[in-house]
What does this fold into?
Amino acid sequence: MAPNFGRIPPSFPAFFLLLLVTAATHPSPAAAAGGGHDYSDALRKSILFFEGQRSGKLPPDQRVKWRRDSALRDGASIGHDLTGGYYDAGDNIKFGFPMAFTTTLLSWSIIDFGKNMGSELHNAVKAVKWGTDYLLKVTAVPGTVYVQVGDALSDHNCWERPEDMDTLRTAFKIDRAHPGSDVAGETAAALAAASIVFQSRDPPYSRLLLHRAVEVFEFANNYRGAYSTSLNHVVCPFYCDVNGYQDELLWGAAWLHKASRRREYREYIVRNEVVLHAGDTINEFGWDNKHAGINVLISKEVLMGNADYLKSFRQNADAFICSVLPGISHPQIQYSPGGLIFKAGGSNMQHVTSLSFLLLAYSNYLSHSNKVVPCGGTSASSAQIKRLARRQVDYILGDNPVRISYMVGYGERYPQRIHHRGSSLPSVGAHPAHIGCKEGSRYYLSPNPNPNVLVGAVVGGPNSTDDFPDSRPYFQESEPTTYINAPLVGLLAYFSAHP
It folds into this structure.
């Protein structure tokens, strides 16, 4: 029987508490001896990864040369151009929910840390635009958002290059009769955040993004519901909305306020703070749950002394920081023996990079306002929070018990057999003949390293005991995703400028 290539996205020992506090405060012996990591190199590679995930017609300046054009007829069956965008992970589906979140976090990385990106800033901006160009296409029809292209079940039953795809490329949408406030709210956030990125670089494009963000948010807010209700058989169990759509409405409003400074969005946030559960799950942040991100984003204005009426968001953000600090017990946040943030479920690195990004962003806001975070009988300074974020980044780059970099192409040792179709199959250049759906199985099951190095890809990472199986079938550990890399871009930018 052919393998199914799909995926479904203890109390802490006192000894390890001491270990983690020490690790968060002091660099590892390897890092100290070797002068630390080359964050600039890692930054360049983390952005390059997105070019390996591109769908559609590739541009002349495409740097990942083993990739070719793919999915050029997406949307043709409905008479609507849906080419472009990103494949979210190691498969060939375009999932709108994680793609929008990826675009939001890439934009936030540039907004907060673009000044630290040096020559890589233009590549980061291009990565955002590849996402927003697609998001503009999927939102071109008022009251409609195309949220997925491709049938996940048929795609996950094959192991084939995106260039060879012969699986169903059905386009799935939400509309007024079948709402999806979660994916629409995130799409509005992505468009609004990106409009800030292009405000001075391309004002007409920025205005288009903001105008569309306003329209999509109105649709999300006026026609409420979770997209996994009407599209359950399509998006579940892959990107099923478990958390509800309320957080995406607040998230979208927060980004629209930041981008437009319109009072209506500030009033929306204040009016809906309790109704939309702003204080729920304070230490969750990712494509499905925006709560910690909402609190950190809005808290910047509070810390700068401009918005006391939003002080509850700062209290929530402080609580988030306290819940993540090593040594403070919280059932939702654990650490591996080697010091990695660990949350239950697959692809743990998505939590590591997203939460670490928030730690760094909030530490900067604290630093600029000369504030600290009160945690019971103690307090956390901006410097302490930054050290914890850096410790997570260093773990990813190789300062871990296995001594392996979880970023492909960075360091001397990195994953060789990642769960990624294009990387694991011979490139079109090396093997021009079509490789059919089941013909790829032998490459999937092969013990050999992937022939194409997907430089910059960060995989799902080790298990709770720091063990890592470098094997394609272990997709929860070996599959890279765009939403692992997006927040890491901001982290690497900052640490490249502050080594």
Remarks:
- Confidence is low (pLDDT under 50) at residues 1-35.
- The two ends are 51 Å apart (CA to CA).
